[in-house]
Amino acid sequence: MDRVRDAMVVDPPQLDGDTSAQEAGETLCRPEVRAVFVSDEGRFLGVVTRKTLVREIVAAGRDPRATVLREIVEVPLNTIGSELPLDEAFRFLEEQDLERVPVLEDGRLVGVLSRAVLQRRLAEDEPPADDEL
User: Is the pTM of the predicted complex or chain greater than 0.85?
Assistant: First the structure.
């Protein structure tokens, strides 16, 4: 049976909690980057998004060069383990209406599971319907 670890994006890029909000903003300017994962000494702290930067830096009038990510990081409401079966992971993402979720092992970020990738993966594993034969 396939597990989350078989479908997740492995070792997503992470920034250290001491990284400035300015540097996170520069990273988030890249169109393919939707979130920055933040860790301290390997321990997952959470996520910083464009929305986080607007709310915590711009709207609050803080200096992005002087504010470090551990001060503004958002702890995700949901995480998932790498050993969870894929069908259970898919149900979880559907029930929680999540597009992606951090995958943790012993408090460390080891991957990210995307609903779109998971849907494709599960579709590949399904046998063809009778009318497709």
Answer: no
